[in-house]
Structure formats: structure tokens, C-alpha cells
TrEMBL record:
Pfam families referenced in this protein's UniProt entry, alphabetically: OMP_b-brl
Signal peptide: 1-19
Domain spans labelled Outer membrane protein beta-barrel: 8-197
Organism lineage: Bacteria, Pseudomonadati, Bacteroidota, Flavobacteriia, Flavobacteriales
Keywords: Signal
Name of the protein this chain belongs to: Porin family protein
Length: 197
């Protein structure tokens, strides 16, 4: 976590230094389009128990400023998770996520701007080994910020404040499992890069 925070501070300092040299860096305005999202790949190999795990996710997001302060957008994601125990597949899951979000930017035309975000996601994951599907919805409210390091690129950070999740197996008689969370978890701050067209 220290490395992530130090990297973020270094990027912010670099961006601030560049901003002093060339004014006019950054900011959003009506009609702007931005792209952000997630791309992750992970693998673990527990040689003591002969367990291997691989995971992958790609989830691009696109947003559009409908006026000076409000941006709306959507995302499409794909993820997979596979576990192999002593050479035998025990989990092989994959699925899609569709989402929509709305943001309110408090100072969109500035190089540094805070925003509030309301988002809604629908996901469907299938275990290929058992032909078992789980469908879920997520709704959340969060806070974030953009800091422009150039006229097109910004660093984005966010934290969830309010969240609701409901998951249900796609089988007859299954009941939904729900959870509700309130409060910012500062150990789970997300960082990313945002590109503005």
C-alpha cells in the first residue's frame, strides 16, 4: 500500500510541476468524453498445497458530460476466475458485468475536481464445471477526484461511501443474499488513469 501511495504522490507532484510550466492543463466541459476502467490479471501458486489460481478482469468505462457539471456513462466488463487443486480444476468461473453511472463534478473546469458518483451494475457469473449461474446487482454511492497532469490525462481516485449488493443463484427456489455497507473504507481507495477526448 505504501508503494501505491508513494507512486500517487509522485505522479501528483510531477503533474503539479508540469502545471506550473504550462497553464491550461485539464478540466472538463460540456460535450467532453472520457475513458477509464479496470484491467487486472493475477496468478497465485501455493506449492505447499499444490493449488493454482488465475484471475482476469477487463472493464472499460466511458462517460459523457451532458452539461458543465454532470457526466453519465456506462461500462462493460468481463472477468474469469480459475482454481486448480492437485491438477484438477475445482473452480472455473467467468461472467459479464453491465453498468451505468452518473457523476456530479463540483469544479469540472479546474485542474483538480471532486465528484460524487452513483452507480448501478448487473453481473452474471457462471461456474463452467457445474453449469451453475449467479446473478447479482450492485448499487453504490461514492466520492472521487480527478487531477489533470496534462490536457487529456488525469489521475483518478475514489472511495465507496454507500453500497448495496444482492446475489441470487439461477436455480429454482434459490433465495437472494444481500448486503448493505455504509462508510468510507480508506484502505480500499481506488486509483486509475482517465483519458479525455
Amino acid at each position: 500500500m505504501k508503494k501505491v501511495l508513494l507512486s500517487a504522490v509522485a505522479l501528483l507532484a510531477f503533474g503539479f510541476a508540469n502545471a506550473q510550466e504550462g497553464k491550461g492543463n485539464g478540466g472538463f466541459s460540456k460535450g467532453d468524453v472520457f475513458v477509464t476502467g479496470a484491467f487486472t490479471f493475477g496468478t497465485t501458486n501455493d506449492k505447499n498445497n499444490d493449488v493454482k489460481t488465475n484471475s482476469f478482469e477487463i472493464a472499460p468505462q466511458v462517460g459523457f458530460f451532458v452539461n458543465e457539471n454532470i457526466a453519465v456513462g456506462g461500462k462493460l466488463g468481463f472477468g474469469s476466475y480459475k482454481t486448480e487443486d492437485t491438477g484438477v480444476d475445482t473452480v472455473d468461473m467467468s461472467g459479464l458485468t453491465l453498468g451505468a453511472f452518473g457523476r456530479y463534478y463540483f469544479t469540472p473546469a479546474n485542474q483538480f475536481s471532486l465528484f460524487g458518483q452513483l452507480g448501478f451494475d448487473y453481473s452474471s457469473m457462471e461456474n463452467k464445471l457445474t453449469n451453475y449461474k449467479v446473478n447479482g446487482i450492485d448499487a453504490g454511492l461514492g466520492l472521487g477526484m480527478n487531477y489533470f497532469v496534462s490536457s487529456n490525462f488525469s489521475i483518478e481516485a475514489g472511495v465507496a461511501v454507500l453500497g448495496f449488493t444482492s446475489e441470487k443463484a439461477d436455480v429454482s427456489g434459490a433465495k437472494a443474499s444481500t448486503s448493505f455497507n455504509f462508510g468510507g473504507d480508506w484502505r480500499a481507495v481506488t486509483f486509475g488513469v482517465n483519458y479525455k477526448f
